[in-house]
Amino acid sequence: MKKAVAENNSKKWLSDNPKYIYSFVAKKYFSEMKTKSEIADEMGISRFKVARLIAEAIENEYVKFVFPKQQALDEELAQNICNKYSLKDAVVLSMIDSYGDRQLLTDKLGIVTANYLSDHLKQDMKVGIAWGRVLSSTVSTLRELPPLHVVQLAGVHPKIEFSQSPIDLIHKIASISNGKAYPIYLPMWVDDENVARQIANDEFVAEARRFYTNLDVIITGIGAWKSGSSSLFNIFPDEWREGLLAHDVCADICTTFIDSKGKVIESPIDKLGFGISHEQINKTKNVIGVAGGEDKYEAVLASLRSGILDTLITDFDTAVKLMDEN
């Protein structure tokens, strides 16, 4: 008799809508604290089938795990980062969201950064945009912004391969915000100082560059030279690269280079390039650096030591390591 009832229950559940099965099993297991064997007896199926249903319920998001104190922990960690490194603000990606491969982490940092910008950018702000994968991800996520003046912070180079070039990024942000873009249709550098000076004084170039001394916000990724995770590392002439490496270069912010102790290093691009200078970056009211992951850690630390950053957006593991740093 018991076997016949079990068989009837099994036929009933196996023919039912899967979403009801997931909900039933999840409720029994997580809320009523029943064992898999008890649920199996009630449903007339094997405990292995119950285990599989529980796993599928989690995978299909019929069950979500919420950690009430996690957000408070992330906010506390962000505040501690601010205090330790004298920052105006910090955002730490949650511990749960910090897991995954490099591309997934980049995408999640992009989402967090987009939300931060939507909350903090105000109408008519002058916003400088660098380049990088995390900024491409950020701009792809942005949906709404107040009208802004969006300024390109350096020329372009054909070997910087991102889904969106610096010119694409500023035009897209300007479009989202119904603001105005100030592009620089120039290479990142030229080979002659006289040519560089002449080009820099061109009226169309000067229109964008005149913003460099009074920007409200800069949004930039952080290039990592110790791990080779820097777009500039890959495109610089060999002589430039070797010269910077000889001076313990650790990170780049826009076209400013920093050693592991946070000291700014001079580079040929300072005289031959068309990017914002270190001095001009320092005049910006809020320099937002976005980077995370193990390969970026030393560069993030060097950038914080330099004092260039005002705001850091990073992942949980990086933030914890930063707090452990002497």
What is the element string, with H for helices and E for strands?
HHHHHEHEHEHEHHEEHHEEEHHEHEH
Helical fraction = 40-55%
Q: What top-tier CATH class of the largest domain fits best?
A: Alpha Beta
- Main β-sheet: number of strands, strand sense, barrel status? 7 strands, parallel
Tally the helices.
16
Mean of residue pLDDT? Answer: 88
Give the strand order, joined by hyphens, for the main sheet: 1-11-10-5-2-3-4
State the domain count. Answer: 2
Strand pairing plus helix content: what structural class? alpha/beta
Question: What can you see in these coordinates?
Answer:
With 326 residues, this protein is of the alpha/beta class. The chain has 2 domains: 2-59, Arc Repressor Mutant, subunit A, CATH 1.10.10; 70-324, Rossmann fold, CATH 3.40.50.1360. The protein is 49% helix and 13% strand. The protein is built from 16 helices and 11 strands. It has helices at 2-14, 18-31, 36-43, 47-59, 70-85, 102-120, 133-141, 166-177, 193-200, 203-209, 231-235, 238-246, 269-272, 278-282, 297-306, 316-324, and strands spanning 89-92, 126-129, 149-152, 180-182, 217-221, 223-224, 249-253, 256-259, 264-265, 286-290, 311-314. The strands form 2 sheets. It has a 7-stranded parallel beta sheet with strand order 1-11-10-5-2-3-4. It has a 4-stranded antiparallel beta sheet with strand order 6-7-8-9. Helix 7 links the parallel strand 2 (126-129) and strand 3 (149-152). Helix 5 packs across helix 16. It starts with a helix and ends with a helix.
